[in-house]
Amino acid sequence: MSDTTNNTPNSTRAKTNRANSQHSTGPRTPAGKQRSSLNALRHGLTGHVIVLPSEDLAAYQSHAQRLIHDLQPKGALEEQLVQSLTDTSWRINRVAALETNLLSLGIHEQSANIETAHPEAHTALAMAAFAREQIRALANLSSHEHRLSRQFERTLKQLREIQAERLEKEKDQMEKAARILQLHQDEGIPYNPADDGFVFSNDEIETSIRRSDRLRQANNAYYASA
After folding, report:
1. Nearest Cα to 72, choosing from 82, 58, 59?
2. For the chain, what is the largest distance between any 2 Cα atoms, rounded to a whole number of angstroms?
């Protein structure tokens, strides 16, 4: 019995697909490459791609580190929110850059169609002509920017609320730990904060006590001189 497996329709389609894939090298013309680039940018604005191949990964990492330094996240939830803020603000910056690039390209393309000897008027008219032709593309960019800005504001608000709640709890816990530590010191008994469920070290508690004492002294001096 002869083997007819390679003559099945599925096998024929597989061969055809393999042959076609060998000939497919992506867009070849400048227009095709530009469309492909714009598709990547569109996915970068709305999808899960954060740093595009045309963007600087080191710049993104520096951007992330600055936000981490400014926002000081603590714990997995706060870190996740800061990561979301990093990605959203990166996309917002991308929208602004893309809009600038599109307008620059439009001015260049429309320059030959504008007849005026005044350089500033020439640029303004070329930009207006391009904006009129690409009003939908510009409106889409604006819509993306507004959506991302609202998302950034909501996430930042959520982060601030969580951090405020955490800091209030930490302050309350520190005040309790300070009172217990001072009691142990007065009685000459060593104290381990972990025995009472505190995450602070004795050095951190003593630093907080000294800070509170200095603040109290500063307040007394201020009101005495007022």
Report:
1. 82
2. 110
Give the pLDDT score at 153: 97
pLDDT, tens only, 132-155: 556 676 677 778 888 999 999 999
Q: How many residues in total does the chain contain?
A: 226
DSSP 113: G
pTM summary value = 0.61
What is the distance between the alpha carbons of residues 3 and 14, in angstroms, rounded to a whole number?
18
Q: Please enumerate in sequence order all residues whose Cβ is within 8 A of that of 138, keeping only pairs 6 or more positions apart, or say none.
A: 99, 102, 131
Residue 209 and residue 178 in contact, taking contact as beta carbons nearer than 8 Å: yes
Q: Which two tokens stand for residue 3?
A: 């083997």
Structure tokens at 69: 């330094």
**Both tokens assigned to 21:** 């894939």
pLDDT in tens, 49-103: 577 776 778 888 999 999 999 999 999 999 999 999 999 999 888 887 777 667 6
